[in-house]
Amino acid sequence: MAARLLIRRAAISAARPVFASPFRAACLYSTAEKPPSSAAAAQSPPSEPDTHFGFQTVKESLKAGKVAEVFSSVASSYDVMNDAMSFGIHRLWKDYFVRSLNPGRNPGGQPMSILDVAGGTGDIAFRMLDHAEKINADRETSVICADINADMLREGEKRALEQGYMSTNRISFRVENAETLDSVPDNSIDLYTISFGIRNVTRIPMALAAAHRVLKPGGVFACLEFSKVSLAPLDTIYQQYSFSVIPLMGQLIAGDRDSYQYLVESIKNFPSQEQFAQMVKEAGFMNVGKGYEELTFGVASIWKGVKPLDSK
After folding, report:
1. pTM (global) more than 0.85
2. What are the distances in angstroms from CA 278 to CA 141, 271, 282, 304, 308?
3. Across the beta sheet with 215-226, what order do the strands follow?
4. Coiled-coil annotation: which residues (predicted)?
5. What is the average pLDDT across 212-223?
6. 195 in a known ligand binding site
7. pLDDT confidence tier of residue 13, bands split at 50, 70 and 90
8. How far apart are CA 180 and CA 207, in angstroms?
9. Which of 28-42, 143-157, 182-196, 261-275: highest mean pLDDT?
10. Is residue 178 marked as binding?
11. Is 121 flagged in the annotation as binding?
12. Angle 233-234-236 (CA atoms, 0-180°, nearest 5)?
């Protein structure tokens, strides 16, 4: 009888799970080790990279959609708000930007093929065509106005129709992602411009690589963008104005405070003049001069790069 009882107790003890105590289970692994993961977990893809959307941190795949929402919201009032926010100075910057590029056919040369990325409402594209015709007597140079946002492009098409450009075949509007420019062939563009748009791109190095790809050897990359104010006392005033006044203007004029809050945050997050010039160089361009020119004490800047003639 005693023998049977001992055998029964041994069987019950053998049937108990090894990890009956959570404390005992935890002690089986040192603090430097983890329990072995399953094969499926070991093969899981790495997590998606984060990026910034204003001062928020979001997944890269979400940023383009959020930026699209912003510009769809502000498309109809975008030019009015630019005037209000900059007291009209953005028009002077854009005029100077275009003059510095001198678009149009040189005597004895060929018409230019221009790609204006993030062209939206056509501000830069129309200036390019006007300059080519009035300064260089060129009515053949053409501009592709590309933007990821169809609502912004519709505003540009409306303006092109009003100004008589749609019937000239000198301008076309395309929905394009700046990071890929899928419909633009390699080595096909003489001048690539992007104005107040590159800071909204999710992966800026990819956009720069796409610009390098589509430009002909000897072609010019030119970017006009907000930058870092060079004078500290002025920067303090500028930051107060940007974060206190501009979102309020967005609420009063466009009925959209959040979109303009994002816009000022995106300006704050953009690299410095020197950092972005280095990014342009790393994309394969030769910097023009020191790589950038400051406008209005650095409130905005122009960056230029040339695609080397020996580029493939």
Report:
1. no
2. 31, 10, 6, 11, 16
3. 171-175, 142-147, 113-117, 189-195, 215-226, 300-306, 286-295
4. none
5. 98
6. yes
7. very low
8. 7
9. 182-196
10. yes
11. yes
12. 70
Confidence of residue 67 (pLDDT cuts 50, 70, 90): low
Alpha carbon distance 281, 285 (integer Å): 5
Rounded Cα distance between 137 and 164, Å, is: 18
CA-based max dimension of the chain? 117
Distances (CA, A) of 246 to 115, 237, 242: 30, 13, 5
Comparing C-alpha atoms, which of 263, 282, 283, 273 is closest to residue 303? Answer: 273
- Cα 46–chain centre separation: 24
CA–CA dist 194, 225 (Å, integer) = 8
- 87-117 pLDDT, tens per residue? 889 999 999 999 999 999 987 789 999 999 9
Question: Is residue 190 a contact partner of residue 160, using CB atoms and an 8 Å limit?
Answer: no
* Tokens encoding 228: 């870092």
